[in-house]
């Protein structure tokens, strides 16, 4: 029991510590009291976040009247207890324990400069060499990220608890027994061949460096520590960069609200992309003799395509091309010849400036970003139903949920720290239902795995609604108070009995009923979803069903309930908030709202009426317009549509057709290979700015290392382009990515201007963000602590009620047939981020997943004449890629999975660009393919 | 198989392959392994607390545990592979091997604990290791409870008293590797349980008799039985009763004798257990039997069948009687599981790591619920106490001590065996009144009053009363009353080293003082002249800072040697 679990008025416990009267707070251990009052006690197995097994015995103390000494980390004071920490018996026991451990592990300081064993040995006066040593145990160097040196291991089990109790990965254990007791991975397998997912929580937990970064980074102290936020997924983990000589040596998780010191393999070991020799370090202008070839975009040496230029020349060229298009094709609004793709990987300030630039300089809303390919359909459904697209509850609210429905998401791979909270909740008794055609890692932890047929989400969810309505499991009071159109959905659901839907979705009626009842009857039930729901032509319908489930059961508006579409990119929430969307201005002010347009025009110094009332083109629409010659020039900041867009061959052709393409990026991406001007930008650890995670938590990323060569901050580039496009911007953004607390210039000034347009963060000033580091909006004023749970009393719709929208069954746009008999699902994998531009240039991540794979069920593979590791070719109506087979029993039959991070077998060459009518998201999770062994046809 | 070789992580010599993995991470479950595990475990519920029972199924069928099967078992029980492996690798009776490894299915174990070593166990081991290559895996084993028939061995599940290379080879050749047959238990009407159920005897009256009898726990600690019952009874349900039949203290074999007595053995113990369960309100009874007693397991299973029939009739006679569920659990070769909290961990299907105290198991036992844990002999006495009255038992004893004690006597005596004797009897009395004195040519040099943990006393202290608490001033205790007699042909230091090796082998490895302390002690005790100050420091930290009794008591024999036999380990005296 922890102190905060106890009533605040519980009486303190009076006892005596080393002759002094002390009062312990209820739940406090002897060690905690000792630490609080300044009594130093060595301790190794105990760590605040990991609990106290009491096995090292380095903290033992003498309790009067007890036969043996007691571990102070595990004992709570009792009234009247008399405790001696400094008696001869206690001090000599602690010293001898440390001497025994020193005999086992004499050289831990070599592995970890701040070895806790060496530290405590010094404190206790323990001497090495008094006892004979143990036999050498050897090393395990099989893993690219971590080295295991068992000779430094003291069997404290902190790594085991980190792996199991914290991260829920259950890979590490203490096997064998007695003096042979040994840390093992799986069945004493080499770490590199085990199920280890390399979250590195064990590295962070180990007190002696027995498990340490493989690069030896723990051997020397770093000269600088900078706290920041992880650049990968939307969980938004806070981390600390340990920096020496301008390079990140290692990364440590710190106590952010979303991660409480946890990280995953990308955040902890994937930082070295920033130091890749492939970084762009000088502006590039396309060589006249280098035609744009859509068929040759991957892994190009920039010298083949470009020449170096000065910043002035490159910026002039970039701006001139955009101006030429603007002047030659005088369309405005949707008809503008210019469009921009911003990035969900930059800061809020960068996203804000980018949309402001496109809207101000080209009088168009043709500005979008990869949210279109992520949660556009979820956003559409949530805006329609609830009047807001934000998550209702933070991810960590799963700890307060009795029931969690996780559908169309694979957080163990894509939001690993988020998955750890789910696994923790399951261990505490939460029922997890995993609805996913694939049996992914979390299935082992799930109460039920619903492996439904791909693309039949609506059938499954409508059947659940049917059960809830038919069996009277709705919450009539909630429905009456907070919703409208219930009758429509009630009547509609009548046609979707589990018996009728079972043949469609492949889930037994009894299971559907059981799960529906458990959801409705839970005290608090939460729904989490990912791209498996959204990336369909019926993605909006899928999300509507989930919204309806929450509303009719009243499972929203309280802790542990609600709707949480798991955001993908680290700043997809913030980029959307900042207005990087063609339908809305910052803070989701609709462009057809005249007052909102006027506010923006006034603040931005634009003539009244410059901003149009019609939404701009979306990502796929922009590509189609480019293909059709209506969009002539584009500015792309840190996005890679040549890899990420559906039917990528067509997207690449569209990019080639542009008269002028300017790309800002840190690498020569497949998109940049088609550019006229490439501007080298800063990587995440090279700049300061705010970022907003999936929980709506705004955090501050801080510059930790200098950018290489002449690479410059994206926000600086945007400001420079703006000036060259005739906009009188005077933020004075620093070219090197730095920023200060000064809110009158630079990034601080950008933030404050943005805040003026965003009521949701009204109470979060630049100064406060620096001070607090993480605040969850809505935040009304400086004293408002922020709100993790929203919709607690109604919804931000005109009548305050949420709308229930019945949906019909619609099949995916492209069904398997005789020629293309398999369903292809695309997605991500743990080690690689999105299109791989960053992670494939991380030495560690690349070593862990070095190439593309086609996942198939072994039986499906066998029917196609394929075995594990065999080379296969996958063809759709749009393209073909060839890659080796990974057999995976978690795959459903007749279904293929390809991660889209690999340029050499780009999954999006196959995918279907058919769009969801409302969300304009493409059906990246479903298309028909044929699979055959590679080789002559 | 060399245990060290098995435990060393192989290095990958070649650099990381550039080709992506052809499967998801880690070892994959093959359909063949899945089918095999399913076939062997089909009737076992898929509960994680039954992990060790599942492992026994695989081990009994294959003679080993294979990595592939463990992966399939993990999948079946929805555990991770390491959760299965760390349990499998904890228990000595499981050997984990590669899927393709070809090993003889039968294991021959030869006892190398004290009494058996004194009777030639080590040379028997060496002989068999030489003779049985390719026919059986020959392993040294700690005490198997056949000290009165030393040297002891086992061939598969066949216990072999007075083992010789010939007898072991003969059993192997004849394929006699199953449990020894024992006489069946004689049916018992459970009269005392009937009295309790009929209301003739109240629960309070049972407790009163128990208190009057001064019955103490007979597993080694000697805690007053009635007090445990009252504590557990006062806790909120559900409650459990654990019967500890994991007798493993070196030199102890009395529990085997009690359990397998056809007249008044297993069924009398079960009657006592059912009475205890009824009085404290336990609805589940767990019998945890050491794996070495294969013969006793068959016997106990038979007795359990009979007891269940009796319970069925009792439930008809007394409709309000809710008979507790009784489960028999099989150890897997781990002395530490005799420690009650380690035993409870093992019942839950985990590694047998003793828990930290507080809390005590009476409050937080099986599945963290209140638990009455008793050695089987303690429960065996309950029907006797109720039949003859507590006062009768309390009146037994010599020299002011109260009660009767079962001594396991082995070593240099003419008639080793189990003897029921008055509490307070002396070593001289025990040996001469019961065990027939020392053999020809042997005179008393030293003795172990309480197995491996109880220390070593010199012949000069052969007239002190043997009972709980009477030996504290000599740094010793009687524990489970396992008496091993040494003669002038033995050395106390050899005994101490043998015992320390036992503790090193049996340490769970959880806490530093015991894990490292036993291993360092084994190294230090091999020096001709002992480093007494360093050993003293080591003893002190083990006693003061170990989690459980194993580590706390492990230095006793060492301290005894330094105190009573210094001539063996000092300059000039050391050989």
Q: What's the helix and strand layout?
A:
The complex is a heterodimer of chains A (937) and B (575).
Chain A lengths: L12 E5 L2 E5 L5 H7 L23 E4 L6 E2 L10 E3 L3 H17 L3 H4 L4 H9 L14 E2 L5 E4 L8 H9 L5 E4 L6 E4 L15 H5 L5 E3 L10 E6 L8 E7 L2 E7 L11 H5 L14 E3 L15 H4 E3 L2 H18 L9 E4 L6 H15 L4 E2 L7 H11 L16 E5 L3 H4 L1 H12 L3 E5 L12 E3 L6 H14 L5 H7 E2 L1 H8 L4 H8 L3 H13 L3 E5 L1 H4 L4 H14 L9 E4 L6 H6 L6 E2 L3 E2 L3 H11 L14 H9 L5 E5 L3 H4 L3 H10 L2 E6 L11 E4 L8 E4 L4 E5 L12 H11 L21 H11 L9 H7 L1 E3 L25 E2 L18 E6 L15 H6 L5 E3 L1 H6 L7 E5 L4 E8 L7 E5 L12 E4 L6 E2 L3 E7 L4
Parallel strand pairs in A: 1-5, 16-17, 16-26, 18-19, 18-22, 19-20, 21-32, 22-23, 26-27, 27-28, 33-37, 34-36
Antiparallel strand pairs in A: 1-2, 3-4, 3-5, 6-7, 7-10, 8-9, 11-12, 12-13, 14-15, 14-28, 24-25, 29-30, 30-31, 33-40, 34-37, 35-36, 35-40, 38-39
Chain B lengths: L2 H5 L23 H11 L9 H12 L2 E2 H11 L3 H8 L7 E2 L9 E5 L2 H5 L2 H11 L5 E5 L11 E3 L2 E3 L4 H10 L16 H8 L4 H11 L11 H9 L5 E7 L8 H7 L5 H15 L1 E8 L4 H24 L7 E6 L9 H8 L23 E5 H13 L1 H5 L9 E8 L5 E6 L4 H8 L9 E5 L8 E2 L23 E6 L4 H15 L5 H13 L7 H14 L3 H5 L2 H9 L11
Parallel strand pairs in B: 1-2, 3-4, 7-8, 7-10, 8-9, 11-15
Antiparallel strand pairs in B: 3-5, 5-6, 11-12, 13-14, 13-15
Helix pairs in contact in B: 2-4, 3-4, 4-5, 9-13, 10-11, 13-14, 13-16, 19-20, 20-21, 21-23
């Amino acid at each position: 029991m922890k102190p905060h679990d106890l009533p605040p008025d519980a009486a303190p416990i009076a006892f005596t510590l080393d002759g002094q009267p002390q009062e312990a707070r209820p739940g406090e251990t002897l060690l905690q009291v000792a630490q609080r009052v300044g009594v130093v006690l060595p301790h190794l197995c105990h760590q605040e976040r990991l609990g106290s097994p009491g096995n090292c015995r380095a903290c033992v103390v003498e309790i009067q009247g007890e036969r043996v000494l007691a571990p102070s980390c595990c004992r709570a004071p009792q009234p009247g207890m008399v405790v001696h920490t400094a008696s001869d018996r206690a001090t000599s026991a602690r010293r001898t324990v440390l001497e025994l451990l020193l005999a086992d592990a004499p050289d831990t300081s070599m592995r970890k400069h701040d070895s806790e064993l060496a530290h405590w040995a010094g404190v206790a006066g323990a001497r090495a060499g008094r006892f004979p040593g143990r036999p050498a145990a050897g090393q395990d160097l099989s893993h690219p990220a971590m080295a295991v040196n068992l000779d430094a291991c003291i069997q404290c089990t902190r790594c085991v608890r980190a792996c199991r109790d914290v991260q829920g990965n259950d890979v590490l254990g203490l096997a064998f027994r007695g003096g042979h007791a040994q840390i093992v991975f799986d069945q004493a397998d080499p770490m590199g061949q085990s199920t280890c997912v390399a979250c590195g929580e064990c590295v962070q937990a180990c007190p002696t460096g027995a498990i340490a970064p493989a690069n030896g980074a723990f051997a020397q102290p770093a000269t600088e520590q900078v706290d920041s936020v992880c650049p990968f997924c939307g969980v938004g983990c806070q981390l600390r960069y340990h920096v020496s000589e301008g390079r990140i040596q290692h990364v440590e998780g710190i106590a952010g609200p979303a991660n409480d010191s946890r990280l995953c393999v990308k955040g902890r070991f994937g930082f070295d992309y920033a130091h890749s020799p492939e970084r762009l370090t000088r502006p590039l202008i396309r060589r006249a003799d280098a035609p744009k070839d859509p068929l040759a975009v991957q892994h190009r040496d920039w010298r083949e395509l470009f020449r170096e230029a000065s910043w002035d020349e490159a910026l002039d060229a970039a701006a001139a091309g955009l101006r030429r298009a603007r002047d030659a094709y005088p369309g405005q609004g949707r008809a503008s010849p210019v469009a921009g793709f911003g990035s969900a990987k930059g800061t809020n300030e960068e996203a804000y400036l980018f949309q402001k630039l496109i809207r101000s300089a080209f009088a168009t809303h043709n500005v979008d970003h990869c949210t279109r390919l992520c949660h556009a359909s979820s956003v559409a459904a949530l805006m329609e139903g609830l009047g807001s697209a934000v998550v209702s509850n933070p991810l960590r609210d799963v700890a307060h949920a009795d029931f969690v429905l996780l559908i169309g998401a694979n957080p163990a791979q894509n939001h690993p720290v988020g998955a750890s909270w789910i696994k923790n909740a399951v261990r505490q008794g939460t029922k997890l239902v995993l609805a996913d055609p694939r049996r992914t890692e979390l299935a082992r932890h799930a109460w039920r795995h619903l492996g439904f047929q791909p693309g039949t989400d609506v059938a499954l969810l409508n059947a659940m609604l049917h059960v809830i309505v038919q069996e009277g499991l709705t919450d009539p009071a909630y429905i009456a108070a907070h919703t409208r159109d219930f009758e429509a959905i009630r009547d509609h659901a009548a046609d979707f009995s589990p018996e009728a839907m079972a043949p469609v979705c492949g889930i037994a009626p009894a299971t559907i009923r059981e799960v529906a009842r458990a959801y409705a009857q839970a005290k608090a039930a939460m729904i989490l979803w990912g791209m498996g729901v959204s990336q369909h032509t019926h993605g909006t319908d899928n999300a509507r069903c989930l919204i309806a489930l929450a509303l009719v059961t009243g499972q929203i508006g309280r802790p542990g309930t609600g709707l949480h579409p798991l955001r993908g990119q680290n700043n997809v929430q913030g980029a959307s908030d900042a207005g990087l969307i063609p339908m809305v201005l910052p803070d989701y002010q609709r462009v057809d709202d005249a007052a909102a347009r006027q506010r923006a025009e006034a603040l931005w110094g634009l003539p009244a009426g410059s901003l149009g009332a019609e939404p701009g083109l979306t990502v796929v629409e922009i590509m189609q317009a480019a293909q059709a010659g209506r969009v002539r020039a584009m500015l792309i900041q840190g996005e890679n549509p040549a890899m990420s867009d559906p039917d990528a061959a067509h997207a690449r052709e569209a990019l080639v057709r542009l008269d002028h393409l300017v790309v800002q990026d840190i690498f020569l991406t497949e998109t940049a290979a088609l550019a006229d001007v490439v501007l080298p930008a800063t990587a995440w650890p090279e700049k300061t700015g705010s970022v907003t995670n999936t929980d709506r938590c705004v955090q501050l990323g801080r510059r930790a290392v200098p950018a290489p060569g002449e690479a410059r901050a994206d926000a600086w580039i945007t400001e420079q382009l703006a000036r060259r496009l005739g906009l009188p911007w005077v933020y004075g953004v620093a070219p090197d990515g730095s920023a200060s607390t000064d809110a009158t210039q630079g990034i601080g000034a950008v933030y404050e201007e943005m805040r003026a347009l965003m009521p949701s963060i009204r109470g979060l000033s630049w100064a406060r963000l620096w001070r607090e580091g993480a605040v969850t909006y809505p935040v009304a004023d400086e004293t408002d602590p922020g709100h993790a749970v929203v919709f607690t009393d109604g919804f931000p719709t005109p009548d305050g009620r949420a709308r229930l929208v019945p949906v019909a069954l619609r099949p995916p746009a492209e069904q398997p047939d005789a020629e293309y008999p398999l369903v292809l699902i695309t997605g991500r994998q743990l080690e690689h981020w999105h299109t791989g531009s960053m992670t494939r240039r991380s030495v560690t991540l690349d070593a862990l997943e070095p190439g593309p794979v086609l996942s198939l069920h072994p039986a499906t593979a066998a029917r196609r004449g394929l075995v594990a590791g065999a080379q296969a070719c996958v063809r759709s109506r749009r393209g073909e890629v060839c890659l080796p087979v990974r057999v995976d029993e978690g795959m459903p039959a007749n279904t293929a999975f390809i991660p889209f991070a690999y340029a050499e077998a780009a999954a999006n060459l196959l995918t279907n660009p058919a769009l969801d009518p409302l969300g304009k998201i493409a059906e990246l999770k479903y298309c028909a393919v044929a699979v055959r062994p590679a080789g002559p046809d | 198989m060399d245990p060290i070789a098995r435990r060393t992580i192989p290095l990958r010599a070649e650099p990381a392959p550039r080709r992506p993995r052809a499967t998801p991470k880690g070892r994959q479950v093959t359909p063949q392994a899945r089918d095999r595990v399913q076939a062997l475990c089909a009737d076992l519920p898929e509960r994680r607390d039954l992990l060790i029972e599942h492992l026994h199924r695989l081990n009994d069928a294959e003679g080993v545990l294979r990595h592939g099967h463990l992966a399939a078992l993990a999948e079946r029980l929805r555990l991770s592979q390491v959760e299965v492996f760390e349990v499998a690798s904890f228990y000595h009776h499981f050997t984990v091997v590669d899927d393709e490894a070809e090993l003889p299915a039968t294991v021959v174990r030869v006892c190398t604990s004290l009494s058996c070593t004194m009777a030639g166990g080590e040379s028997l081991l060496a002989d068999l290791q030489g003779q049985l290559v390719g026919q059986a895996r020959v392993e040294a084993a700690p005490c198997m409870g056949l000290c009165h028939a030393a040297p002891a061995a086992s061939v598969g599940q066949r216990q072999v008293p007075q083992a010789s290379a010939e007898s072991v080879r003969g059993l192997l050749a004849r394929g006699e590797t199953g449990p020894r047959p024992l006489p069946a238990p004689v049916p018992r009407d459970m009269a005392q349980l009937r009295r309790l159920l009929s209301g003739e005897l109240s629960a309070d009256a049972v407790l009163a008799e128990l208190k009057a009898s001064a019955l103490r726990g007979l597993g080694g600690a000697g805690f007053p039985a009635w007090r445990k019952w009252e504590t557990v009874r006062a806790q909120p349900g559900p409650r459990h009763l654990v019967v500890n039949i994991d007798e493993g203290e070196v030199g102890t074999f009395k529990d085997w004798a009690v359990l397998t007595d056809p007249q008044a053995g297993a069924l009398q113990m079960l009657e006592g257990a059912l009475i205890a369960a009824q009085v404290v309100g336990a609805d589940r009874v767990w019998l945890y039997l050491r794996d070495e007693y294969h013969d006793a397991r068959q016997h106990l299973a038979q007795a359990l069948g009979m007891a269940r029939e009796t319970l069925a009739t009792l439930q008809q006679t007394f409709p309000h009687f809710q008979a507790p569920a009784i489960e028999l659990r099989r150890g897997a070769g781990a002395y530490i599981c005799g420690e009650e909290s380690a035993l409870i961990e093992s019942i839950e299907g985990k590694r047998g790591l003793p828990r930290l105290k507080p809390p005590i198991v009476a409050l937080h036992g099986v599945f963290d619920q209140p638990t009455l844990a008793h050695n089987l002999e303690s429960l065996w006495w309950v029907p006797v106490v109720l039949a003859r009255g507590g006062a009768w038992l309390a009146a037994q004893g010599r020299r002011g001590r109260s009660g009767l004690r079962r001594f396991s006597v082995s070593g240099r005596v003419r008639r080793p065996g189990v003897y029921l004797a008055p509490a307070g009897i002396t070593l001289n009395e025990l040996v001469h009144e019961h065990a027939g004195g020392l053999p020809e040519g042997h005179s008393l040099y030293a003795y172990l009053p309480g197995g491996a943990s109880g220390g070593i006393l010199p012949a000069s202290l052969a007239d002190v009363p043997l009972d709980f608490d009477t030996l504290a001033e000599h740094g010793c205790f009687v524990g489970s009353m396992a008496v091993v007699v040494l003669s002038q042909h033995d050395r106390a230091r050899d005994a101490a080293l043998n015992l320390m090796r036992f503790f090193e082998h049996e340490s769970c490895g959880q806490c530093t003082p015991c894990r490292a302390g036993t291993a360092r002690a084994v190294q230090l005790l091999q020096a001709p002249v002992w480093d007494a100050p360093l050993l003293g420091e080591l003893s002190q930290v083990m006693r003061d800072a170990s989690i459980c009794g194993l580590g706390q008591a492990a230095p006793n024999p060492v301290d005894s040697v330094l105190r009573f036999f210094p001539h063996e380990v000092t300059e000039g005296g050391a050989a």
